[in-house]
Write a structure and sequence with these properties.
Layout (H helix, E strand, L loop, with lengths): L2 H32 L28 H9 L17 H18 L9 H15 L3 E10 L1 E3 L5 E3 L2 E6 L6 H12 L7 H6 L7 E10 L2 H23 L4 E9 L9 E4 L13 E2 L2 E3 L4 H14 L10 H11 L6 H16 L7 H13 L6 H20 L5 H9 L10 H26 L13 H7 L3 H17 L13 E2 H4 L6
Parallel strand pairs: 2-9
Antiparallel strand pairs: 1-5, 1-6, 3-4, 4-5, 6-7, 8-10
Length: 504
């Protein structure tokens, strides 16, 4: 087939769909009006199949003719195509109808079917059914993330769009930002506007992809954002946390409708687990270290044959999911599990002492002396044991324990003291994971993932060995541009006490 013939056939298909689409809308709107589904309030312009109306109820004149034109548009709609690969014309016709309803509602004259909104919807319908590929978008709202100039930046595959509106305009800004990426996101506006926590500084993280199977590929977009946040946490120790995400196709006429997914955990100013925060301030310069760190972590977390539980993979998983636990108590348990998985080894005796000595030996810096690490881990594990094993623990006892942590301000109120203690444990886990990954790297693995505990403890008894191992993992991170990722992070901030202050 020559190009001229292919173009003529494409034009013929488009003409057939256009010839059926406009009469369908002209006859369908009065039927929707009889069901009180049209016209719509401008504040709620969307209707949805399966919620507001159902298949053949009401019967829509012209539906069969338009569906038949769509079915002829591409072989994937054919009855001869296997069910696993077949597409269905009806879903596109319903999507086209709903796009027209929403766009006409926003127009000056909702009864004018020759309006630009209908023409745009017809163009989208023709393009969507004649092409296999479509652009899908994932937008995720995250707390404690912004950029150096509070303007949108692209960091690798992720577009970071800071939310800068005043509190009264926050929800409107969120919805507008997401709708600028996913045209039909207004479908889920009720969820966005009724369940939108505020954890300033906030940003919307956006990733895009072209795919023939948007439902399957959407999972990869979620994984991309999960990896981005994990690398950011390992690099900066941020308290960034996902609130919710919206996924869908870029166009309003689509197969993969916008989907709203909230994340578990508590986010924002009223959260019991974000009373202290550590902001992630991004720029384009962060692309290089984040990519290199992702490669470093990916090389370490390879599947090992016969291994049911990989300790390092468990440590990374617990570290990355700990922010979504419902309370500080749960976060202590998650992070303590991660620290054991990263540093304790195989031997099950004297676990706490081994953790204290190994972390003190490998994580010590000028800003974080070995003695402080040794003491803090002991206190944090005492707290962990009280939580797990039960028994009465009075407030004054826990308060004294929390305020004695080296990074906790002495004048911090009760809720914040717990936050600072969890923040300290989270940072120790972060650096432990990085140390293990780096020391198991390369031909001369200083601390192999399957090393014998006695060999490691014997090696760390020597001053020169400790210094050499610290220099080795620090140097590897410096080499990928992750400067200071190996050191203790800067002091956390009180969320309520500093949320309106400009970023440092």
């Amino acid at each position: 087939m020559d190009h001229g013939t292919g173009e003529r056939e494409h034009d013929d298909v488009g003409d057939a769909i256009r010839a059926a689409a406009l009469p369908f809308i002209q006859s369908a709107l009065p039927v929707l009006a009889e069901q009180h589904l049209y016209p719509r309030p401008k504040s709620s312009p969307f209707i949805r199949i399966g919620t507001d109306y159902f298949g053949n109820d009401p019967v829509l004149p012209g539906f069969v003719e338009l569906a038949a034109a769509v079915k002829r548009a591409h072989p994937r709609f054919s009855d001869e195509t296997s069910l696993m690969e077949r597409d269905f014309a009806d879903s596109y016709v319903y999507s086209f109808l709903e796009a027209c309803v929403s766009r006409l509602t926003a127009s000056a004259n909702p009864s004018e079917v020759n309006a630009p909104g209908v023409a745009r919807s017809i163009d989208e319908l023709v393009a969507r059914v004649t092409q296999v590929q479509c652009e899908i978008v994932c937008c995720r709202v995250v707390s404690h993330v912004t950029t150096v100039d509070r303007l949108p930046h692209r960091v690798g595959d992720v577009e970071v769009v800071p939310l800068v509106a005043e509190p009264a305009g926050h929800r409107h800004e969120v919805l507008g930002t997401i709708r600028s990426a996913i045209d039909g996101a207004g479908e889920v506006s009720r969820d966005l506007l009724s369940d939108a926590p505020w954890g300033p500084p906030e940003s919307v993280l956006i990733v895009r992809a072209n795919a023939s199977d948007p439902f399957e590929h959407s999972k990869q977009l979620t994984r991309t954002l999960n990896e981005f946040l994990l690398m950011s946490r390992l690099l900066r120790g941020t308290t960034a946390q996902s609130a919710y995400e919206v996924q869908g196709e870029m166009t309003r006429v689509c197969k993969f409708r916008p989907q709203y997914t909230p994340f578990r955990g508590q986010v924002g100013l009223m959260s019991n687990t974000q009373m202290v925060r550590r902001d992630l301030v991004l720029s384009r310069d962060d692309d290089t270290p984040l990519r290199a760190l992702r490669e470093l972590v990916g090389d370490a977390l390879v599947e090992r044959p016969g291994m049911v539980i990989d300790p390092l993979a468990l440590a990374v998983y617990r570290y990355n999911t700990s922010p979504y636990s419902q309370s500080y108590w749960d976060q202590v348990i998650e992070l303590a599990t991660a620290l054991e998985a990263a540093m304790a080894g195989k031997t099950k005796t004297d676990v706490v002492l081994r953790l204290r000595t190994r972390c003190a030996a490998l994580l010590a810096t000028e800003r974080d002396p070995a003695a402080a690490i040794f003491d803090d881990i002991g206190k944090l594990y005492d707290l962990r044991s009280r939580i797990i094993h039960g028994g009465e623990t009075k407030t004054d006892k826990v308060t004294a324990m929390l305020t004695s942590i080296s990074t906790t301000p002495k004048d911090a109120p009760w809720g914040e003291t717990f936050g600072y203690a969890v923040d300290r444990l989270r940072d120790l886990v972060r650096r432990s994971v990085l140390a293990r990954i780096c020391l198991a790297r390369g031909g001369e693995q200083l601390w192999p993932l399957n090393a014998n505990d006695a060999d490691i403890d014997r090696a760390l008894c020597d001053d020169a060995t400790r210094a050499a191992w610290r220099a080795a993992w620090h140097g590897l991170l410096d080499g990928i541009g992750a400067h200071e990722a190996w050191d203790r992070v800067s002091s956390a901030r009180s969320t309520l006490g500093s949320f309106s202050e400009p970023l440092a």
